[in-house]
Design a protein that fits this description.
single chain, alpha/beta, elongated, 45% helix, 554 residues, two-stranded parallel sheet, seven-stranded mixed beta sheet, 11% strand
Length: 554
Amino acid sequence: MALNTPAELRRPHIESVTLSIITAGYLTAVNNATFWHRSEELLPTGALLALVAGIFCLLTALCITVSVKYLTKPLFIFLIMVSATASWFIDQFGTIIDVEMLQSAIDTTNAEAGHLISFGFIRHVVIFGILPSLLILWVKIEHRSFLQKVKQNSAFIFPALFAAAALFMLNASTFTSLGREHKEWIATLNPVMPIGNAVKLGIRSGKNQNIIVQPLGTDAKVANAGSGNRKPRLTIVIAGETARAESFSLGGYKKNTNPELARQDITYFSDTSSCGTITAVSLPCMFSVYTRDEYTHEKGLETENLLDVLKHAGVHVEWWDNNTGHKSVADRVTSEALSTSDNPKYCKNGECLDGIFLDKLDTWMSGITQDTVLVMHQLGSHGPAYYLRYPDEYRRFTPDCQSAEFSKCSREEILNAYDNSITYTDHIISSVIDRLRDKQDKLDTSLIYMSDHGESVGEFGLYLHGAPYFVAPSQQTHVPYVLWLGKDAKATIRQDCLAKEATEPQSHDKLFHTVLGLMQVKTQVYSPALDTLSSCRVNGQTNPQVANSVAVRR
C-alpha cells in the first residue's frame, strides 16, 4: 500500500455533512451583525433564541442539500463571498440590498465602483470571505456513495426543517407582526435576501427583454406653433443627483449652502417628495406620466415619457448626462454622455465635475432656433466620494472628509464634504440661470431643478441612499425643487399665487405636466392638477384643450 506524503497527512479530511453544518453556522453567526443587532432590539429573549436556532436549521438543511460532489466547494464559497461582500455595505452604510439597489450596482460606472472598493472593504472581504473560502478549498471533503449520501443527508435535512418549522410556528405571531411592521429588519438577513433579490432581478431583466414601448401623447402640439412673432421657448431641466432638501439653506438649513441661488429671482418649493430613493427608480419615474403610486419599473419601460411627448409636439429635445446614464429615459431623443469626456479642466479618472455643462452651454444656446427642452443630468452629490464632486474653491465647510471610506472621517467631516457638494450644485444652477437670463431677449426661457432623491449622512446610523421607500427617512425622500422663469414666462404667472404654491406639497409627479405647461404643449395626457403652475397662470388660464383630461393609466 502506498504511503501518504507529508502534504496529504497535513490536509484535514471532513465529511460533507460536517462541513455543511460548519458553513451554516458561519453564515448564521458571521456577516449578519446588522440583522442580529436589530433582532436583539425587537425580540424578547425567547423569540430571539428561536430565531437564531430556526435560521441555523434552515441554512443547515440548505447547505446539506446542495453538498453534491464537485459542487460543494464552489457553492459554499459563493455563499460565503456573497455574505462577506454584502455585510460590508449593510453594516457600514445601512444599505438594504433589494432589487433596485442591485440594479443600481449593475448600472454604476467603473469610477463610481472604484470609490466603493476601499482598503476597508478589501480587508473586510479578505478576513470574512477569502480566508474562510481558502479553508474550504484546503480541506478534503469525504463523500459517501449515492444511496448512503441520500440516507445520511435525509437524516439531517428533514429533522432540521421540522425543527425550523416548529420554532417559527411557536413564535409565528411575534415574527409575523414584527416582520410586517419592520420590513427593513428581514431585508438585512444575509446572504438570503441579497441572493433572493438577485434572482428576482434576473427574472425581471428576462421579462424586460421582450417589452415593446407603447406610444404616449401622439396628439401633442405646441400652442400657436405657427406664430412667427414669438420667441422660441427654451426650458432647461436640471435633474439633480443625491441632493437632499435638508442641506439646502433655501429651506432653512443653518449652513449657507445656497449663496448664489439666494440672490436669484427663483421660487423654492420647500416640501417636495421624490418618487424613489435611488436613481434607477426616481429618474425614469419623474419623467414618466405615472404618479409614484402608479409607477413600476415595467410601466416605465413600456410607456413613452415626457421627452417623447415633447418630441411628438415638434419640440427639440436633448439629454446631457454627467452621471451613470439616462436609465432608458432618453432612448428616443438626442443624448450625449459628458462623463466620458477627456476635458482636463473638469474630468479626471473617468468622472467630470458638473462645471462641464457650463462650457458646453454657452455655444449651444446660441444655435437655438426652435422650441427646445434640454435635460442636464448631474453627477451632483453622488457619494461616498463627496470630496470629488466640487473644486477646491468650493471647500466652504471644513474640515471636510477627503476619503470615500467613511470610517476614516468623523460624521461632521462627512457632512461638511456633502454640504460643499451642495454649494457647488448651487453654483451650477445659478450659472445656468445667468446664461438663460442673458438670452431672454431672443428666447422665452425657464429652468426647473429637481433632485432625483436625497441622502442620509449618518442620521439613524444610515449613510448614502437606496432605502426601500416604505422605511426611507426624510433625508432620502425630501428633495429640493427650484423654479426660475424668464421675463416672458414670468409675465404669464401670478406671483402672489406662485409664492403660496411654493409652500404647498409638491412631488416628482409634477415634473411631467409642469414642463408641458411651460412649453405650452397641448395633449390629452396633460393634467392641470399635476402642473405646479396651472392654478397660477394669468386669468386662470390652463393649457388649452385639456382642462378635463387625465393622464394615461396602464
